[in-house]
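Design request, tokens follow.
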């Protein structure tokens, strides 16, 4: 954060001593009368003013909104992924359309409440409104850190926008999605999609890899420009470049055995080009093509993962397949390993959005030691989201944990 430093000067023709500082927003010198002739009193005034400036309680410059927008977007141009740029642009456009602020400080709590009302009236969902507000809050916090804005206004998230919906789906539900692929490709928005087997392979890749839909499309056998599998060596991994990664970091991360198994189905001599090639309108599918088709498949299969506030169903999307992978793995690996596989900066993100709690080793050990596996209340079906082989592996891990706990009281 740029700090303010206020000093006292005397100016010819001015009856009082003057406080002077450089404004980090414009680089210009700013002056303000202290109202005091005695230097000791003026220095007390300057110390108070300096604290107010650094705490954001006093902003000497009325920063124009359009100047702030240019500065904010330029400061982050090299750090944002393309989709993030689009979302920030959408948020800025919504603010300008609904609030039309002349100055940055005009975007206060009342103006933001007006923005939310306008977005609701336009039919935006709580999730969409929440996404806009999160980007707006990030922008205003940045402005405050740069001393362009005083206090960041309180922003209340709409109900239903804080925690995202969705859930892990079962193996049976995933099989239903595979079965309806031919029917989906013959109707609605997905009718331009072709070659059902290419789409089934793409679904399987999402299911076993835990990759985001855009990452799965970028996965390439030999070129490391975006994302590629490292199949050789003792431990298979994925390698992703910063420009293809949501967190803008170049890194390698674990590959699940089931993902290695799927990729190994392709003979080594045929491992060229992109790993998956879903066909859309006679060409390889692009990002939005894949989003539309996978969502249509989830709808056709009747796989409901959540309900909207009005009760309407929310059907399985590609991100629910990623969530499903995380939930299956949570029963087999420690939370820190799962965090690495999902590439989350915080383990709280993994626990909150991508697992059902089965990744908690203490809870898992307690459940097993207290006979949880044999406990099935009458009338309640406990649906498994993992295969028999994966369940056996989870059971082995649970027995190992139980033995360790019993042997080390």
């Amino acid at each position: 954060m740029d700090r303010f430093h206020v000093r006292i000067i005397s100016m010819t023709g001015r009856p009082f001593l003057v406080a002077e500082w450089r404004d980090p927003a414009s680089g210009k010198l700013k002056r303000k009368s202290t109202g005091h002739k005695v230097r000791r009193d003026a220095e007390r005034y300057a110390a108070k003013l300096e604290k107010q400036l650094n705490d954001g309680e006093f902003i000497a410059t009325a920063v124009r909104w359009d100047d702030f927008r240019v500065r904010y977007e330029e400061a982050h141009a090299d750090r944002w992924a393309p989709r993030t740029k689009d979302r920030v642009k959408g948020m800025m456009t919504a603010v300008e359309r609904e609030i039309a602020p002349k100055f940055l400080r005009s975007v206060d709590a009342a103006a933001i409440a007006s923005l939310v009302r306008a977005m609701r009236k336009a039919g935006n969902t709580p999730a969409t409104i929440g996404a806009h507000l999160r980007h707006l809050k990030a922008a205003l916090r940045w402005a405050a850190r740069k001393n362009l804005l005083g206090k960041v206004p309180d922003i209340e998230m709409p109900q239903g926008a804080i925690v995202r919906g969705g859930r892990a789906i079962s193996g049976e539900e995933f099989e239903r999605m595979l079965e309806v692929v031919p029917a989906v490709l013959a109707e609605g928005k997905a009718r331009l999609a072709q070659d059902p087997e290419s789409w089934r392979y793409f679904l399987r890749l999402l299911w076993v890899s835990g990759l985001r839909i855009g990452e799965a499309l970028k996965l390439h056998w030999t070129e490391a420009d975006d994302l590629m599998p490292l199949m050789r060596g003792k431990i298979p991994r994925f390698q992703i470049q910063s420009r293809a990664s949501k967190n803008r970091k170049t890194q390698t991360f674990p590959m699940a055995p089931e993902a290695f198994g799927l990729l190994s189905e392709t003979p080594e001599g045929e491992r060229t080009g992109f790993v998956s090639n879903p066909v859309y309108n006679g060409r390889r599918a692009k990002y939005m093509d894949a989003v539309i088709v996978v969502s249509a498949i989830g709808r056709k299969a009747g796989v409901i993962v959540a309900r909207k506030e009005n009760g309407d169903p929310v059907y399985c999307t590609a991100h629910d397949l990623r969530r499903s992978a995380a939930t299956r793995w949570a029963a087999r690996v420690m939370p820190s390993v799962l965090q690495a596989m999902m590439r989350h900066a915080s383990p709280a993100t993994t626990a909150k959005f991508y697992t059902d709690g089965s990744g908690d080793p203490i809870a898992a050990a307690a459940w097993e030691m207290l006979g949880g596996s044999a406990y099935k209340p009458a009338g309640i079906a406990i649906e498994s989201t993992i295969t028999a082989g994966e369940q056996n592996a989870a059971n082995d891990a649970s027995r190992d944990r139980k033995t360790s706990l019993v042997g080390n009281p």
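Comment from the thread starter after seeing the answer: thanks! The chain has 16 helices and eleven strands.
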